[in-house]
Each structure stands twice: as structure tokens, then as C-alpha cells.
Amino acid sequence: MKVFILFTTLVAGASLSPAHAAGRSDPNWPCPQPKVPQMSIAATWDGPPIADGSDAWKDNPALKELVVKLAARRTPLDEAKEAVAAFLTGDPTEKQNKAKRLFASLFDALNQQRADVIRGIERVDRKQKELADKIRSDVAALRELQDKAEQDQSKINALAGEVEWSIRIFDERRKTIRYVCEVPIVIEQRTFTLARAIRQALE
Question: How far apart are CA 141 and CA 147, in angstroms?
């Protein structure tokens, strides 16, 4: 049966892929890279000591506007670096205080953004497993209908159509997960780049 062969190929490819092998310690983590729920501020920032996990920036409209702009991946990095330089003005002490506050705020925003993406990946992977179970059940029911001496062609056609549609959704999600798995890495890279830009603006 065509739909059964197609589904078997898709599921086998997904379950045996390096992504699933690397993430097998967590059943809901399908990405190739190990799952790291939170970034480490110590591994990102080598400037003056700052507090980890501060979200006080959300109560400062001007700082919040800047952080949202810098954290947005649609903001080009060159534009983000110019915004950093424009913000870090004043005497050395003032600049250092601004830099510490800016990076603590930016790190908090990007860390939350990355955590949201990770939770989204896990949700999609859970749905993918649920859909796979449903397709297996429907394929088994379809085979039973086809094996009957007196076949109900209308039921067979309806269930076959449902299976094919489910398989299409399964394959589209599989492709989406591959793309989204790169997003946490992109966020990490942006965090490192902006941390370096803030440090350089202090020199």
C-alpha cells in the first residue's frame, strides 16, 4: 500500500536520524545539538560583573525599547551595533554602568526568547509523535478494511485520504523542525556578537 510505505519511510527516517540519536536522553528533543535549556551569562560575558537573570529592564521604557530592538533577529547586526554605541555614552563610570545594565537586560531577553523556542520545539515534537501514533492506527484500520472479503470502498477512500493528509502534515512538521532547530544556535550567536559589541564600546 502506497500510503503505508510512505509513512513507514518517513517515520523510520525520523527515528533513525542523528537528531533523534543525539537527543534520545530527552524524548521530546529532536535536534542534533544537545539540549541546553538556558544560556550561561558567565560563558557569554567577560566584562564587568553583572547580575544574572535581571528583568528590571521591562520597567524602563527607553531601555526596553532598545533591548527589544537589539534582541529582534530582524534587526541587522550592524544596525544593532550602532545602537549599542549610541547608547553607551558618558564618562567611563557611566558607560560601564550602562553597559552592565544593557547586557544584563539583553541577556535576559535573549535567554527568554531562546527558552520559548526550545519549548516550542518540544511541543511540535510531542505532536509529531502523537500524529505518528494516529497514522499507525489509521493505517492498520485501512489494511483491515482492504483485507475484508466485502469491501466498503467509500470507507476505504475516506480513510486513505485521511491517512495521506496526516502523512503530509507529518512530513511538513519534520521539515519545519529541521529549520527551527537552528534558531537556538542563531540566538546564542547573536548574544555572543552583541556582548562583544558592548565590550568593545567600553574600550
Answer: 10
Task: Convert the pLDDT of each residue in 126-152 to its tens digit.
Answer: 999 999 999 999 999 999 998 888 888
pLDDT, average across residues 55-63: 76
For residue 145, give the 3-state DSSP assignment.
Answer: helix
What pLDDT score was predicted for residue 62? 86
Burial class (CB in 10 A: 0-12, 13-18, 19+), 6: middle
- pTM confidence score: 0.80
Asked if residues 50 and 171 have their Cβ atoms less than 8 Å apart, the reply is: no
Domain count, the chain: 1
What's the distance, CA 13 to chain centroid?
A: 21
Q: Which three cell numbers stand for residue 16?
A: 533513525
Which amino acid would we find at residue 168? R
In terms of Cα–Cα distance, which of 194, 17, 198 is closest to 113?
194
Mean pLDDT of the chain: 84
Residue type, 100: K
pLDDT at 48: 80
Domain range for 47 is 2-202
Give the separation between CA 98 and CA 54, rounded to whole angstroms.
14
